[in-house]
């Protein structure tokens, strides 16, 4: 399930998502990765660029931790699964296999599910 699908199904997530620029940028960057259909076929460059944007947007969370209901360590722990999945993408030359894609989707899903207070 795509992150955008989850956001559309939950007004609570969507409300917080809309009100937080840093999180908005994170998921905008992720949406670039989700543009492929069932299997993800893209060049390293296509994966790398949105991943860099994801990293930049994530780093903004550290700039104002008082505005988010999470400590930096909790944010770091939650996002580490996402980074782990992203780092696996760099190892693939021209395509990402289905198992890796599913691992990535699951990491994002768990991030949202386990951190509703964002």
Q: Explain this structure to me?
A:
It is a single chain. This protein is an all-alpha fold and 118 residues long. It has one domain (3-114). The protein contains 6 helices and no strands. The chain has helices at residues 3-9, 11-18, 21-33, 44-60, 72-91, 98-114. Helix 3 (21-33) runs antiparallel to helix 4 (44-60), helix 4 runs antiparallel to helix 5 and helix 5 (72-91) packs antiparallel against helix 6. The longest helix is centred in the C-terminal third of the chain and has 20 residues, at 72-91. It is globular. It starts with a helix and ends with a helix. The model is unreliable at 1-19, 36-43, 65-70 and 92-96 (pLDDT under 50).
Question: How are the secondary structure elements laid out?
Answer:
Elements: H1 3-9, H2 11-18, H3 21-33, H4 44-60, H5 72-91, H6 98-114
Helix pairs in contact: 1-2, 3-4, 4-5, 5-6
- In total, how many beta strands? 0
Number of helices: 6
Gyration radius from CA atoms, angstroms: 14 Å
Shape: globular
| Structural class designation | mainly alpha
Biggest β-sheet, characterized? none
Succession of helices and strands: HHHHHH
Number of spatially distinct domains: 1
Q: What portion of the residues fall into strands of 2 or more residues?
A: under 5%
Please report the distance between the alpha carbons of the first and last residues.
19 Å
Helix residue percentage:
55-70%
- Average predicted confidence as pLDDT: 54
Uncertain stretches of 5 or more adjacent residues = 1-19, 36-43, 65-70, 92-96
